[in-house]
Amino acid sequence: MCGIVGYVGSRDCSEVLVSALTKLEYRGYDSAGIAVFENNEIITVKTKGKLKDLEDKLGAVGKPQGHIGIGHTRWATHGEPSDVNSHPHSGARVTIVHNGIIENYLDLKEFLISKGREFLSDTDTEVVAQLLDYMYNGNPVETIDSVMAELKGSFALGIMFKDYPDRVFAVRRESPLIVGVNEGECFIASDVPAILQYTRDYYLLEHDEIATLTREGVTFVDEHLEPIEKELKTADWDMEAAEKGGYPHFMIKEINEQPSAIQMTITPRIKNGLPCLEECGITLDKIKDFKSITIVACGTAMHAGMVGKYVIEDLARVPVTVDIASEFRYRNPIVGKGDLVIIVSQSGETADSLAALRLAKQKGATTLAIVNAKGSSIAREADMLIYTLAGPEIAVASTKAYITQLSVIYLFAFELALAKETISPAECKRLVSALRKMPEAVQYVIDSCEEKCKFIATKLINAESLLYIGRGLDYALSMEGSLKLKEVSYIHSESYAAGELKHGTISLIDEEMPVISVATQTDVIPKTISNIVEVKSRGATIILVCTDACARKLKEGVADYVIEIPHSDELLMPITAVVPLQLLAYYTSINRGNDPDKPRNLAKSVTVE
Ligand code: F6R
């Protein structure tokens, strides 16, 4: 999604803006631009392409010399990626950058055209710039407030008024925006990593609040233009966490961070060998009466929910439905008082997941958020909250966030099973103890499988399509393996319940279709092996991810490549088994010459529908 930055201070503003934008590259973008006050004039330089292209252009035309400005990376929504559609956009006296969508922009555009305004771009953003200019009454904050009343949608804006060359304004509705502060300087940004090189202190801008940034500091007013005091926050992770630290890509760095991410996430939530989620607002008493659970999320987070379904149903005997947030929110779901709705989200800002959370609350359900980004909208609005403590996840393809989501879901499932008395405290302690071994087990899998995955990935370079199969938890995991591969390698892939193949999909199998099978669940391994034999006999190349115990029983020639992982508690196997799937995706992406950190067309934080 688009990234916004802004600066007011005494540094070289163009440099600050470009440098801050590089820290938002992970969000995904197709064009970039900056606008800086130079001798009281706003100078805008923008281009289609990457930040490198912007830097080249700045080199060619001369970078604006000044200390106050705004910058943007654009992920196209309205209008193709092009120089003219890139941000910043301007009206005669106003220049803005924008993240999000203005839903009523066509009506507003029509109105402005009827008033004689002309538009250069296809964007909804230019409509806001023109509207600000049209409604400008000499007072920027009042004007922004009046314009906000006209806008529908979710968005964040960084704004400069030509008449006020000493300040930058910021406002948001739904889309995230923070205001960083330091001695003699202030920043705005879509996310904390953008400002970490300058300061760790920041404010979270709330809906419809307007911030005014000057060298003296920042002031805030609410939607009624009343001045407000806000709580200063401090980022608890530093630059290093948001840098590659010697790895070629964030994705592989984050895969390698998984053991410590699990450790960080589970350790504070275990006391006396049992789960302890009191600090997250969860007690046995509070959860014992839930009759049904719905897990709502998007993409990888939804796949973590799929694992949750199997685990919660198995341990706590409570029916669990998993729903895609964009479906849940528009289908009048059956949830209400006495039901628990769990929202899983790395960013805590995913538009559909946030809307699903609000709908669930409106219908009377109790909500639990499992979120990585501190202070995000989903984290703030849910009734109960468990943070995954994965640290910043920069690569677009989620890895360590997924594994920590699983870890939290396991802890919650154990706690729920205790509350429901479907497992004994002794059994719970055994499960917790098995979970505690996961950081070490994941480290072992990374160390023992990476070379093999690298090699097998060379065999996938020319594949046009792949199938991932498994049963039960292995099926839930196959979904994640398949998504990971397709998003970073651009090879089409599907995940399928292995037993369902015969009902149609097996017709796709031939020599050209590699099949990746996951087999970690002892009860169904013989069944999955039969399915593997069926696809093998139709010519498919088989890559099998299985436990060492399964590998020992495997007949010669059943699979072309076998990736063995150590056997642990069966329910916990997804935590270790996902690692080779992540590595296969990563190395296939590299082999095909892609940038796994910034897959085409994708954005890290999907703050629009
Ligand atoms: C895939 C991926 C996405 C996200 C999805 C939800 O690797 O990262 O599928 O899982 O966009 O995002 P969050 O978790 O931020 O709500």
Secondary structure layout plus pairing:
Elements: E1 3-8, H1 13-22, E2 31-38, E3 41-48, H2 51-61, E4 68-74, E5 89-90, E6 94-102, H3 105-114, H4 124-135, H5 140-150, E7 153-161, E8 168-173, E9 178-182, E10 185-189, E11 201-204, E12 210-214, E13 217-221, E14 227-228, E15 233-234, H6 250-256, H7 258-266, E16 270-271, E17 274-275, H8 284-287, E18 292-297, H9 299-316, E19 320-324, H10 325-328, E20 339-345, H11 351-362, E21 366-371, H12 377-381, E22 384-387, H13 400-419, H14 425-436, H15 438-458, E23 465-470, H16 473-489, E24 492-497, E25 515-519, H17 525-536, E26 542-547, H18 548-553, E27 561-565, H19 573-591
Parallel strand pairs: 18-19, 18-20, 20-21, 21-22, 23-24, 23-25, 25-26, 26-27
Antiparallel strand pairs: 1-4, 1-10, 2-3, 2-4, 5-6, 6-7, 7-8, 8-12, 9-10, 9-11, 11-15, 12-13, 13-14, 16-17
Descriptive key words:
609 residues, alpha/beta, Glutamine Phosphoribosylpyrophosphate, subunit 1, domain 1, Rossmann fold, 3 domains, 19 helices, 27 strands, binds fructose -6-phosphate
Number of helices: 19
- Through-space gap between termini: 11 Å
Structural class comes to alpha/beta
Please tell me the total number of domains.
3
Residues in helix, %: 25-40%
Oligomerization:
single chain
CATH fold type of the largest domain:
Glutamine Phosphoribosylpyrophosphate, subunit 1, domain 1
Q: Which spans have pLDDT < 50 for at least 5 consecutive residues?
A: none
Largest sheet: 8 strands, antiparallel
| Mean pLDDT reading | 94
| SS elements, strand count | 27
- For CATH, the homologous superfamily of the largest domain is named as Aminohydrolase, N-terminal nucleophile (Ntn) domain
Task: Just give the CATH class of the largest domain.
Answer: Alpha Beta
The molecules bound to the chains, other than polymers, are: fructose -6-phosphate
CATH architecture of the largest domain: 4-Layer Sandwich
